[in-house]
DNA sequence: GAGCACTGC
């Protein structure tokens, strides 16, 4: 390995990551195994953040905004809410909120904090995530929630008046909801000077966050200002990770999959025992890498390697393999996507191999298409990946790019999600909160005006916004109320008119789940056959109705799912979402009605939401090429669709996925005259040119 | 002939 690698000139150092001392999937080390309160208290005091308790409380007392830079295992997430509670911030009926970008983290942190405070979860300490509200209105003083839920709460309580302090954790990840939340919190602060905001962020982002929240206008007027200082305070808390030594390649690699496999082999050869985590970009890479490694290990007679894939599409049981203990004398190699960068914490990793790439979403507002492309990661991501090696003992990280590339070419932080996404949901949420001047909204990072305008256009075409870009009544307000993509919400509202809301909320629930089929490559043929049992000539949406019906008739049986290659957990989720939609539609005064098999009604309701996603088969096309009616984009039916190779003339699709081609996922056949019925304004021009009568 | 990661009363 010494020929291949050169130690970086950068000195080995502590590497940060984001969880404040909470180890997901490591619940056995907590009090349930017999530690009493006293021991928990001692553990708390040993956390690095403990030393800063007074400083943090002082800063929160005197500053409107405090930015906490916390490294690995600093304990900030679990401890700061408790400090605030002890200092009296939850007195007088007030509450302390702490947001996380992910549900799992919310549950884990809340559970841990309840344990440390020796209270029952759901009483003094509670949490709220979608479908799960473990809080008690009278008792709960410290509340953990996803930032998406807090945004929803603002619809009822725009000033978030019940909270005295709001801590936004993992702000450096710059997720869509976090950015919207930060923009809104800044606005709230102006109206509620007594509100305190704590933002926990990685080092790299701290300064820009501070600049964003700095609302102090003029230095001289400082003495006249009432209340806390407007200029944010920045506090830094060290972590408790181990050293991770960094290595770079001498020359750029041409094939990072092959290179990752060779590196794993060298580590296995030359380094002491310890598991390896390899960051690749997707399922394809991962499958190829595992195959290559198996071959290389076989041909060189090397033993003792156990390779495990890890990506979100993997069935739950297979994902759990990653957490099973490595057999004695073996070395586990986990080939993972970005999922291991933030969402999952793996124990026992000592070596990290970083390809330097990940798949990232990019949105093109001109074509209104979201693309998934392999792109170089940022320095922040690279640090995060490296940090995964230093959790149990000092580790090593092998970067499959040159040190020169890292220093001079890699961007410091990634592009915030809000600048890479379709903004339709985001715009409607702001409108619902009464923010009229969307283009002038103060964001932590501004999205492009093109994306904003495109979102406004789409919402206008859906009849959600009027000529003055205000929410229409009742449609606009109703669509904003439903926590789904506005196109789906519109479809639900239309179903009322067509008398098929029972069917449409089922379809809406299925569409909001990733996939209801079991994702297995080896048994593709059986999966296709299973699909045929439910396939409807009208398309995928109607097929979903058949699957749902079968699932209900089987009495929601997991056996039935297994037999039919249907993902049982996904179907449970469908039931859950459907129940939620049922409640919401009832509140909106939409009566649930079944069309009793009138499929045309169902398809018309779908068209009412998705008219913009219409495509027409190219005449004389031999390979099933379609063009979208709106922008004449070349698109194809996705191979997973029941209409693949059927190629009906006119279709409406739910979404596009872009790989080497643009694939339409979930399609139904339509009659083109429905398009002009559903959106006359939208299709007026195209009517004569592209739709034959 | 094919699926980065999250999320929402």
From TrEMBL:
PANTHER family linked: ATP-DEPENDENT RNA HELICASE, ATP-DEPENDENT RNA HELICASE DHX35-RELATED
Superkingdom field: Eukaryota
Record-given protein name: RNA helicase
Source organism per UniProt: Solanum pennellii (Tomato)
Helicase C-terminal domain location: 260-434
One Pfam family from the record: OB_NTP_bind
This protein's UniProt keywords: ATP-binding, Helicase, Hydrolase, Nucleotide-binding
InterPro entries for this protein: DEAD-box_helicase_OB_fold, DEAD/DEAH_box_helicase_dom, DNA/RNA_helicase_DEAH_CS, HA2_WH, Helicase-assoc_dom, Helicase_ATP-bd, Helicase_C-like, P-loop_NTPase
Protein's gene: LOC107029268
């Amino acid at each position: 390995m010494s020929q291949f690698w050169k130690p970086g000139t950068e000195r080995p150092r502590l590497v940060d990551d984001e969880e404040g001392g909470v180890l997901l999937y490591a619940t056995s080390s907590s009090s349930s195994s017999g530690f009493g309160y006293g021991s928990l208290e001692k553990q708390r005091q040993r956390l690095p953040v403990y030393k800063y308790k007074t400083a943090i409380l002082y800063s929160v007392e005197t500053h409107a905004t405090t930015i906490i830079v916390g490294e690995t295992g600093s304990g900030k997430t679990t401890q700061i809410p408790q400090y605030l509670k002890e200092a009296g911030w939850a007195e007088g009926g007030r509450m302390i909120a702490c947001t996380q970008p992910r549900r799992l983290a919310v549950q884990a942190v809340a559970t841990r904090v309840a344990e440390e405070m020796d209270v029952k979860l759901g009483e003094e300490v509670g949490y709220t995530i979608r479908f799960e509200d473990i809080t008690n209105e009278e008792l709960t003083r410290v509340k953990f929630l996803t930032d998406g839920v807090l945004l929803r709460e603002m619809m009822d309580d725009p000033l978030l008046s019940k909270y005295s302090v709001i801590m936004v954790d993992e702000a450096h990840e710059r997720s869509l909801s976090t950015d919207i939340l930060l923009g809104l919190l800044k606005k709230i602060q102006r109206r509620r000077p007594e509100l305190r905001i704590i933002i926990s962020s990685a080092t790299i982002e701290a300064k820009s966050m501070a600049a964003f929240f700095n609302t102090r206008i003029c230095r001289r007027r400082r003495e006249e200002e009432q209340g806390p200082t407007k200029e944010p305070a920045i506090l830094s808390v060290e972590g408790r990770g181990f050293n991770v030594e960094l290595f770079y390649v001498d020359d750029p690699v041409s094939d990072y999959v092959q290179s990752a496999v060779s590196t794993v082999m060298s580590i296995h050869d030359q380094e002491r025992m310890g598991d390896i985590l390899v960051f690749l970009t997707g399922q394809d890479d991962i499958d190829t890498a595992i195959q290559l490694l198996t071959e290389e290990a076989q041909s060189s007679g090397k033993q003792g390697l156990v390779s495990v894939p890890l990506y979100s599409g993997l069935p739950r049981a297979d994902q759990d393999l990653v957490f099973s203990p490595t057999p004695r004398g073996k070395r586990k190699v986990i080939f993972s996507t970005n999922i291991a960068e933030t969402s999952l914490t793996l124990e026992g990793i000592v070596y990290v191999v970083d390809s330097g790439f990940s798949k990232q979403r990019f949105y093109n507002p001109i074509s209104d298409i979201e693309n998934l492309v392999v792109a170089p990661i940022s320095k922040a991501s690279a640090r995060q990946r490296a940090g995964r090696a230093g959790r149990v003992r000092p580790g090593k990280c092998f970067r499959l790019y040159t040190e020169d590339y890292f220093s001079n070419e890699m961007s410091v932080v990634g592009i915030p999600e809000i600048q890479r996404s379709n903004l339709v949901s985001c715009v409607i949420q702001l409108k619902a909160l009464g923010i009229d001047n969307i283009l002038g909204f103060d964001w932590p990072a501004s999205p492009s005006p093109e994306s904003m305008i495109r979102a406004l256009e789409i919402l206008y075409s859906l009849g959600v916004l009027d000529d003055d870009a205000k929410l229409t009544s009742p449609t606009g307000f109703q669509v904003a109320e439903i926590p789904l993509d506005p196109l789906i919400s519109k479809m639900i509202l239309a179903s009322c008119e067509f008398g098929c809301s029972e069917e449409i909320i089922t379809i809406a629930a299925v569409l909001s789940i990733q996939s209801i089929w079991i994702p297995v490559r080896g048994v593709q043929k059986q999966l296709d056959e299973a699909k045929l049992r439910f396939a409807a000539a009208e398309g995928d949406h109607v097929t979903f109705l058949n699957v749902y019906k079968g699932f209900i008739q089987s009495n929601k049986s997991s056996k039935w799912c297994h037999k039919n290659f249907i993902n049982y957990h996904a179907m449970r989720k469908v039931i859950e979402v459907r129940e939620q939609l049922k409640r919401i539609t009832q509140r909106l005064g939409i009566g649930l009605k079944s069309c009793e098999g009138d499929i045309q009604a169902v398809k018309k309701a779908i068209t009412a939401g998705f008219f913009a996603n219409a495509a027409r088969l190219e005449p004389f096309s031999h390979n099933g090429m379609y063009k979208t009616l709106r922008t004449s984009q070349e698109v194809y039916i996705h191979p997973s669709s029941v209409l693949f190779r059927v190629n009906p003339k006119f279709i409406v699709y739910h979404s596009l996925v872009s790989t080497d081609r643009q694939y339409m996922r979930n399609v139904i056949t339509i009659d083109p005259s429905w398009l002009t019925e559903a959106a006359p304004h939208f299709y007026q021009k195209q009517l004569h040119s592209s739709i034959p009568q």
